[in-house]
Amino acid sequence: MIITAMDWWTPAGGTLIEWHPTAAASERAAAAAQDAGPLSFLQENHIRACNAARQVGNDHKAYLGSGTDIDGDLDRNALTRALRNFVLRHEGLRTWFDTDGVEITRHLLDPGDVDFEARVAGEFTDHEQFRAYLHSRFGSEAVATSWPGFAFGAISRTGSFTLYYGCDHALSDGASQALALAEIVELYDAEITGNEPAPFASTPAGSFLEYARLENQLAAGFDADSAEIIEWRDIFESHGGVMPGFPLDMGLAPGETAPVRPVELNVLDADGIARFERICKEAGGTFLSGIYAAVALTEYELAARADYFGISVLATRLFADFGMSQGWFCNFAPVAFGVEGARSFTDLVPVALAGYTRTKRLAAVPAQSVIAALLKSGASPADVAASPNLLSYIDFRRFPGYGGQAYDRGVLFTGEGRTANASMWFNRDDERLYLGSQTPDTTLAQLQVKRYHEHLWSVFDRVVTTGDYAVPQSGTRRICDGRDASAMNIGSR
């Protein structure tokens, strides 16, 4: 499984098959009863933002998607049953929403109302044609304000087939996408062979509706005087009372965004990963704290940030029994630690570990509780609501589908709208550590992102080559020395 850009995925041609609700299922979905339970904070804000974008005529890009290739001829009937079983396992996928811009109403289908059928949509051999087709399907069907809030399809050919799945972010996240097609293929194989699917595709999956209820219940237990809220607020205020942005000037005015340009950077190969992890552990840290140390050093050298401040994306699936569930199970928490006192990378690794240990503790506070407390303390609504520059780390070896063809051949991607940031999504598998970033597609922004990524790569490279990286004295700057620059393999198309 890799994360890549949607337009970089080039499956082989064949017959396009789409799955849609039957006419009867669509009719029952439109009449589905209201469900009075709460939405999750991220889900609610996402639906409001999508509605506002739709009102001004913007295309829908707020979805995630995945694809994979499977050996053997496609059995459409078996896959139809597998898709239905998949949706029945995940209560959140039986929901859709309507909103008038103020109130949001969730509708929940009864399990017996779920039914799908396959339709042939033509042939394709041209990748540009397929990209346009996929963008059209996801933009019009992977929308949570109708049911289903996803688009599912296949490319059928003799001896193999390709699957793809795109879902509105209100109903999915990156981990959900990493799980989805592997689970559907397990259910498909069970239909073909009569065998039981693997445990991750057969044991009960927790409901996202229950997760939303628990999140709201947890949020109600925090207020401005809670210790975690005070700590969150202190970190925020000590860094200027604004969310962290990309450290280099990208030439965008406050509030301005630009179209996304995806960028991918190979950071370490398998041998480099092993050396880097060993160095981090011997320094008293972890692989992830080493990533944070490298990022902090880059920002110290390029932007004179003596105190690192970032926002981490953390999974909340283990809050209860939601490990195999489909939904948006994420929270955000600050990562902050000093850089200036460290003399080397290995000095900084345990400092970064302490900073991230605090991050995990603060991640227990739901985002809505933090935002309410920051606003109550007098923080600017615009500063609190600004999209921060994020850092995420996913180890794709840890997912239950690992080792199966659907998972190992899988790709994961997101819709590409507009951005003012260059958030970094570090991803690890058996072969490499790489980062993906959705960056502003302007000349200056691309120059600054390239400069940042080259320097970051040089930090990793020097650590694995020499065992450490010296922190320059205050007032000095080191530039990327260009050693074996081709190894960086920065991709941008």
Mean pLDDT: 95
CATH superfamily of the largest domain: Nonribosomal peptide synthetase, condensation domain
Radius of gyration: 23 Å
What is the CATH class of the largest domain?
Alpha Beta
Biggest sheet: strands, sense, closure?
8 strands, mixed
Proportion of beta-strand residues: 15-25%
Shape assignment: globular
What is the CATH T-level topology of the largest domain?
Chloramphenicol Acetyltransferase
Low-confidence stretches: 479-486
Using brief descriptors, characterize the structure shown:
493 residues, alpha+beta, Chloramphenicol Acetyltransferase
Can you offer a commentary on this structure?
- With 493 residues, the chain is an alpha+beta fold.
- The protein folds into two domains: 2-205, 2-Layer Sandwich (Chloramphenicol Acetyltransferase), CATH 3.30.559; 224-491, Chloramphenicol Acetyltransferase, CATH 3.30.559.
- 38% of the residues lie in helices and 23% in strands.
- The chain has 14 helices and 18 strands.
- Strands 10, 11, 12, 13, 15, 16, 17 and 18 form an eight-stranded mixed sheet that branches.
- It is globular.
- The protein starts with a strand and ends with a strand.
- The model is unreliable at 479-486 (pLDDT under 50).
